[in-house]
Automatic annotation (TrEMBL):
Catalytic machinery residues: E54 (proton donor)
UniProt cofactor(s): Zn(2+)
Species of the source: Desulfosporosinus acidiphilus (strain DSM 22704 / JCM 16185 / SJ4)
Protein name: tRNA-specific adenosine deaminase
Subunit record text: Homodimer.
GO molecular function, one term: zinc ion binding
Cofactor note text: Binds 1 zinc ion per subunit.
Length: 150
């Protein structure tokens, strides 16, 4: 499968978050061409500021794999990760991060800052940005427009 195919699965997760009144961000973790974890934001549901799609997906992937080291896995997420999530991605030793649209207010893997670019880390994550960017951006724009109108 291509990056776009995996990102479409992350968009399904984002749509689930949207329908639950959560900021519509979805994440999928893939290992050996198999989805090992899926998640979407659950901050409102859990009343937990750390319940980001990426964090929940990493937790589920670690449980599925039986290890916190996700060295050959790729994370697909609809929005550029924040500093907390970027740190978790490094800690999980993910091989790849693929995201849809930049977060110009809080992104930490290329826009506001780039946590992945520090040379002192003992792990390097390959980052691909802009996969299905329009679709990933549109769901967020629609969500916040609906919120403002209510």
């Amino acid at each position: 499968m291509l990056h776009q195919d995996w990102m479409r699965l992350a968009l399904i997760q984002a749509q689930m978050a949207y329908e639950q009144g959560e900021v519509p961000i979805g994440a999928v973790i893939v290992h050996n061409d198999t989805v090992i974890a899926e998640a979407h934001n659950e901050k409102e549901l859990r009343n937990d500021p750390t319940a980001h799609a990426e964090i929940l997906a990493i937790q589920r992937a670690a449980e599925t794999m039986g290890t916190w080291r996700l060295t050959d896995a790729s994370l697909y997420v609809t929005l550029e990760p924040c500093p907390m999530c970027a740190g978790a991605i490094l800690q999980a030793r993910l091989k790849n991060l693929v995201y849809g649209t930049m977060d110009l207010k809080g992104g930490a893997t290329g826009s506001v800052l780039n946590v992945m670019d520090f040379k002192l880390w003992n792990h390097k994550v390959e980052v691909v940005a802009g996969v299905l960017e329009d679709e990933c951006s549109d769901i967020l724009k629609h969500f916040f427009k609906r919120l403002r109108n209510n």
